[in-house]
Amino acid sequence: MMKALMLCGHGSRDQGAVREFAGLAEKLKARLPDWHTDYGYLEFAKPIIRDGLDRLRGEGAGEILALPGMLFAAGHAKNDIPSVLNTYAAENGVTIHYGRELGIDLKMLRAAGARIKECLVADGWQEGEPLHDTMLVVVGRGASDPDANSNVSKVMRMLWEGLGFGWGETCYSGVTFPLVGPGLSHAARLGYKRIVVFPYFLFTGILVRRIYDQTDAVAADHPDIKFLKASYLGAHDLVVETFVDRLHEILEGTNNMNCQLCKYREQVLGFEAEVGLAQESHHHHVEGIGSSADCSLCDTACTGACRAQPAAAPRHAAHAQHGEHGHDHDHDHAHSHGHDDAHGHGQGHDHGQGQDGDHHHHAADGHDHAHDHGHSHADGHAHGHAHGHQHGQGHGHGHDHGHHHHPYPHADHPLGPRSMR
């Protein structure tokens, strides 16, 4: 039987992140010469996941193994990708076996340690020298799933203890708390003269650049502390080997996702309302669209310029060039065009889990996708989003997809949760 493997990425507005993920897929393909390997993205980039599955099916695959290209399992790995795969399998008569995320893994920790050591060596450190005078800050993507967030803390602790840093802290680029600015400002008060900031991300992108920018901003306020910026993971050989391990887990039947702490299966403190939430994807309307390649405001790297449009230009119009039904799927919802924002958008899914994750679903202004929230513009037309975005101009063409996402319970936390600007 033909051996077929599908690598499912998040996708990004940033061409650099998309290019790096494609490079990882090619590296995995070279590592597995006996396999037909393809890839696709959940949102904001092409090829989409269905495209990769179509190619494998066209090559004769009737049974496909699929892996999420995610560091940790939160909404994307637990809901969105399985929904896309299940729908495709049912519609096309193929069997798809879904593997688990990279997760907390000794190979991943070794890859992370290598990136941190590279940063230290560039600063004059030599292998074996104590790091008791140095602090480590690990930055995770941030999710509305506490299991995924707690994994970042465990990674930080393993790296802290494994490398012997004097102290360690964790912060996040968005959705949860603490964000990078508050996290680094807190770290600066602990008395360490050198702080290594390590983004635990797979690829580059606007969030990684914002992490480095936030580091520079805090460093400027603390000239007596040396802040070092370690590289993200990238397509490190040990990352590739972890994907190979996940493939073998499917084949061996040991493919166990951590469900004991999953908010969709058990009553996790603070997230009790989400037990038994239906497995569904809300990404079909941003598949393959909205990358910097399609944007006239950016070059190859997404700068977030589309979210800095003048107040007179409704953000829905600004985003129409991304093909997003005029709806800002970055979900930062700054709503600079003057409509009342009393809705409560909660969830934040993993959104990127290591990738750029520009699709933030933030909790800060909470909009629960099943709720109709009317946006009244000064120009007299109204936008009512029943998640399907009834756009106004005097007519509604709403398409209620019926997605029900619960609000993030700590949307009002003073140290987050939102995403960095």
Discrete helix count: 9
Give, in spatial order, the strands making up the sheet with the most strands.
Answer: 2-1-3-4
CATH class of the domain at 106-229: Alpha Beta
Described by strand count, sense and barrel closure, the largest sheet is: 4 strands, parallel
Number of strands: 10
Name of the CATH architecture of the domain at 106-229: 3-Layer(aba) Sandwich
Shape: globular
How much strand content do the residues show? Answer: 5-15%
CATH fold topology of the domain at 106-229: Rossmann fold
Q: Which percent range fits the helix content?
A: 25-40%
Mean pLDDT: 78
Q: Structural class, judged by helices and strands?
A: alpha/beta
What integer value in Å does the Rg equal?
21 Å
Q: Please trace the helix and strand order, writing H or E for each element.
A: EHEHEHEHEHEHEHEHHEE
Instruction: Measure the end-to-end span.
Output: 49 Å
Instruction: List the uncertain runs.
Output: 311-401
Description:
The protein has 421 residues and is of the alpha/beta class. Among the domains are: 4-103 and 236-252, Rossmann fold; 106-229, Rossmann fold (3-Layer(aba) Sandwich). Helix content is 30%, strand content 14%. The protein contains nine helices and ten strands. A four-stranded parallel β-sheet has the order 2-1-3-4, with helices on both faces. The protein has a four-stranded parallel β-sheet with strand order 6-5-7-8, sandwiched between helices. Strand 1 (4-9), helix 1 (15-31) and strand 2 form a beta-alpha-beta unit. Helix 4 (106-122) runs antiparallel to helix 8 and helix 6 (180-188) runs parallel beside helix 7 (206-221).
